[in-house]
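2024-03-11 09:14:02 INFO queue: dequeued item Carboxymuconolactone decarboxylase family protein, len=106
2024-03-11 09:14:02 INFO validating residues
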Amino acid sequence: MSEYLPDVYVAFRERFGAVVQRQDALAAAVDAAGPLDERTLRLVKLGVAIGAQAEGAVRSNVRKALQAGVSVAEVEQVVLQGLTTRGFPATIAAWQWTNEVVGEGV
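2024-03-11 09:14:37 INFO prediction written
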């Protein structure tokens, strides 16, 4: 699977390298701070992104979940969970973003 990085993300990382290094270190520390495995972390982060209706984060976390061995069916179940918590429009948006990522062949 190839790693897709939006141009704006790459440009931000290049412009603010020292800040991004610290952000990456914080993210690694947060991920390591508990007993959740990589697959579970990816599903949780996807759920948070859906709840925030953050398109880029949804797309990124779908990619990362699939790369961590999460199945498309598991990703779809996480998206569906947003229906009763976040609402129909947010779920449909997350469904669209997810399907676009899956359609890319990740």
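2024-03-11 09:14:37 INFO annotate: Residues 84 and 91 are 9 Å apart (CA to CA).
2024-03-11 09:14:38 INFO item closed
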